[in-house]
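User: These chains co-purify. Model them together.
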Amino acid sequence: MTLIADPSRLSPADACPVTGRISLVGAGPGAVDLLTLRAVQRLTEADVVFYDRLVDPEVLALAGPQAELRYVGKDVGANAWPQARISTEITAAALMGKRVVRLKSGDPSIFGRAAEEIEAARQCDIPIEIVPGVTAACAAAASLCRPLTERGRARQVVFASATGQEVNDPCLPARLVPGSSYALYMAVHRLEALVQELLTEGLAPDTTVTVVAAASSQNEQMVECALSSLERDVRRNGLTNPAIIMFTVPLHLRGAATKARVTSAFA
Amino acid sequence: MTLIADPSRLSPADACPVTGRISLVGAGPGAVDLLTLRAVQRLTEADVVFYDRLVDPEVLALAGPQAELRYVGKDVGANAWPQARISTEITAAALMGKRVVRLKSGDPSIFGRAAEEIEAARQCDIPIEIVPGVTAACAAAASLCRPLTERGRARQVVFASATGQEVNDPCLPARLVPGSSYALYMAVHRLEALVQELLTEGLAPDTTVTVVAAASSQNEQMVECALSSLERDVRRNGLTNPAIIMFTVPLHLRGAATKARVTSAFA
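Assistant: Joint model of the two components:
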């Protein structure tokens, strides 16, 4: 048994004043007033801020006048700024003694590729911390005024990514759990495959699906439709990533899901 | 297809200046500097603030001098303030024209019982909004400096409650999805049953489990141990709710999970 009595053992951000430090800061879902006070504080004190294309200019404006702003515009699927290069740039700045803020949209711990940057920092003995933020699914639920969990209906909530790397993963049929709500991140570009997967898993074609693009930002857009018309309606209304696709798997899917699993086990 | 072009249709907080309004405000996980700027703004403007025992006094201190602070101390399992009474009190204050803030620890959309309060407000045509917050699981991950998702290891994250109402739910064996990380809220009081359920579902006895109590607050405590010794180590170190129990279901559980599902289908 390991008892971790002192959190600084894991994130020793205050332990090494002689060197730089890295803060992986959750920039929240979009709206600048959904940043936390701690995120604002880190931005104010930063020597250098690394940001990508999902971060709002208003958020960047919170950085102090001393801060150098560096764009590491990793687009989904693009390789202009591969993760390894971002990790290298960030650690190099910290090794020069700088207070580094790495802004990540939403919460750094949820689909933020934080593990690579943490590992890079630790290899160089650089103190690193995570400043948590409001993740996009929570902002989408807030915009809809519709909670992600609800007694007797959605007893758990699943945040999943659907970026396409794992389309053919054999684990997919086990993914839908009855009585769960789902929030799929970054899935708008592969709706056709997604709809087919969900239908195969037993979700009814008339299941209500809600898509919230750019949740909380000025460009926020929402579409609500049946699963069967999801692709058409999202395209027609021009919704693009970043977007959250939300639905609830009903409790009565239980039989269908069990049947599907047994079938696949003997296929 | 319903296109929701205007979010105020769903949360018309700014649409009815003549009456009161209700803001379900995420108070964050504990630390006062993990509130969002918007949450602080709502507290500053509130006429009345409803709070429960999980809200830090420092957070309450952000309310303006005009604000009436009202304790609705719903303990887990206690009925002194049942949800229906809280909903009634909140709507009654809004109907008197007050700007009502209902503080909810973490994010209101995740295990916040928000649905009941939203329904009560809508029945009275009271404008209601959700101000999203940092949920406890994200704060726990940040304190550990360990992301909830990680490529090739934890492709999705599940936030589940384990308050005990659904111990015998037949859906439980389908709950564990390989390659997922889990954050269980409010489960410390029923560890014995939880450990048995997880072992039955195929999780190895030596699976690493991390418990973070009061994440981000001054009373934060962490324990990391094997699943098999979870109850003993949590008790020995005196961790209590609010706490998050975290573990990752390995990808190689796939075979075990499939076997368990087939077995239960023919039982």
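The domain at 19-134 of chain A is CATH 3.40.1010.10 (Cobalt-precorrin-4 Transmethylase; domain 1).
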